[in-house]
Design goal:
single chain, 303 residues, seven-stranded mixed sheet, 10 helices
């Protein structure tokens, strides 16, 4: 099989296409032919070696955590899936490949009306967005400040929070403001003057803050929360601990939650924005674009 591999930490240039032995599923696992793989900011952070403290990575490594594909083989004890089933979920061996292994418990069936690209874009973004909104206990009638609202996680979080009945103020570059309005957010430009702009939009204050950007907005967020770090969560800012802000790094993914979000995406109730699609061999270009920030929606690789 073919896969993207890197033997050392570094920039996008360390990624290259290689031929690897076909993986064989162990008990509880399935082997999947990958039809599309999602690209996430965590991928380039791990590739750079910045996440070794939290996610030690043996080298050589194949990046990628999410995919959509077709089951080829099942391991002992797997009864929920059979060869030929179309699925989406999390990879156990790296999703930037023509084939990958996955725990059967981490997979959901792909709805027929969902494209491969949309399926691959769902697992990480929807699970992360749902998890953090639950951690923040965002409820009807509240105001949520969401940093990085135009990105893969942020754009999903806008929609899920709005569906809960919350007012969402989403920070993003001006080019993404119309997009945020379509999703149901009130847009605000980030950078200098953020506190004043948000106070104009929410004179009674914000009830919770979800930072999906990691671009230094936590001090302003604390100020907007009246000096407290209560109900502020980041998934991207490495300074969180110094500021006393909760960092949400995830837990066991929920296949049931993924199945429900896939149903919402198929029906059009949840919009999945695909920013750009790259061939697998061009994973380095996808990483360079991801690392530059300002991506609207998700980047996807096609093996």
């Amino acid at each position: 099989m073919e896969a993207i591999v890197y033997e050392e930490f570094g920039g996008p240039g360390v990624l290259h296409l290689a031929r690897l032995d076909q993986p064989r599923p162990g008990p509880g696992q399935v082997r999947v032919a990958v039809r599309a793989a999602g690209v996430n900011p965590i991928d380039h952070k791990i590739r750079n070696g910045w996440m070794e403290g939290a996610f030690p990575t043996p080298l050589p490594a194949t990046p990628g955590t999410e995919f959509a594909g077709v089951v080829q083989e099942t391991g002992a004890g797997v009864t929920a899936f059979a060869p030929g089933d179309e699925v989406l979920g999390w990879s156990a061996t790296g999703s930037y490949a023509t084939e990958a292994l996955a725990e059967a418990a981490s997979l959901a069936r792909k709805p027929e009306g969902l494209s491969w690209e949309e399926g691959a874009a769902l697992p990480v973004a929807t699970d992360t967005a749902s998890r953090v909104l639950d951690e923040l206990a965002v409820a009807e009638g509240e105001t949520l400040l969401l940093h990085g609202a135009g990105g893969g996680v942020g754009s999903v979080a806008v929609q899920l929070a709005a569906a809960r009945g919350a007012t969402v103020i989403g920070t993003a570059s001006p080019a993404n403001h119309d997009f945020l309005r379509v999703l149901g957010a009130v847009p605000a430009a980030y950078g200098d003057g953020l506190v004043e702009r948000v106070r104009e939009l929410a004179p009674e204050g914000v009830d919770a803050v979800f930072d999906a950007s990691g671009r230094g907005a936590l001090p302003a967020s604390i100020e907007l929360r009246g000096g407290t770090t209560d109900r502020i969560v980041t998934i991207a800012d490495g300074d969180a601990a110094e500021l006393g802000v909760a960092f949400s790094s995830g837990g066991a993914p929920s296949a049931d939650r993924l199945a429900e979000n896939a149903r919402l995406a198929e029906s059009g109730e949840l919009r999945v924005e695909i920013a750009q699609v790259f061939p697998l061999a061009d994973a380095a270009s996808a990483h360079a674009l991801s690392e530059g920030g300002h991506v609207r929606g998700k980047l996807v690789l096609l093996p």
